[in-house]
Amino acid sequence: MYKDGNLVNEKNKKVMDVAGYKDKQHNNIGVYRRHNKLNQQFDLIYVDEMPDPPRKGELNSDFNFFVERPFYVVSGLDRGRYLDILGRNMVIKTPNGRNTQLWWFDQKTKTIKNW
Fold this sequence. Notes:
By secondary structure, this protein is mostly beta strands. The protein has two domains: 39 residues, no CATH class; 56 residues, no CATH class. Helices cover 0% and strands 30% of the residues. It has no helices and ten strands. The chain is elongated. The mean pLDDT is 93.
């Protein structure tokens, strides 16, 4: 049975549980007594109700980024320096118009990438 975000075995009243509360690739799923923490919460999304993923230029509301739309990351410090790549390090620098200060959200991998 699905009740209040839990998948419940009506016979023993235990619920589906992500083992050890660890959100990692290939982690086991088991059954456990209900404590209702996030590792026991699941959403059901029916295939015919599944929304299409955002396309280039559209907002991904789960991550709050526009897909493949370039942006700068500006420091909240007084000088408003931009996030930049310097060798293998991420730093803040004065705006300089280089691509090392330009970023974009990759919808496929759900990551921010340097331009």
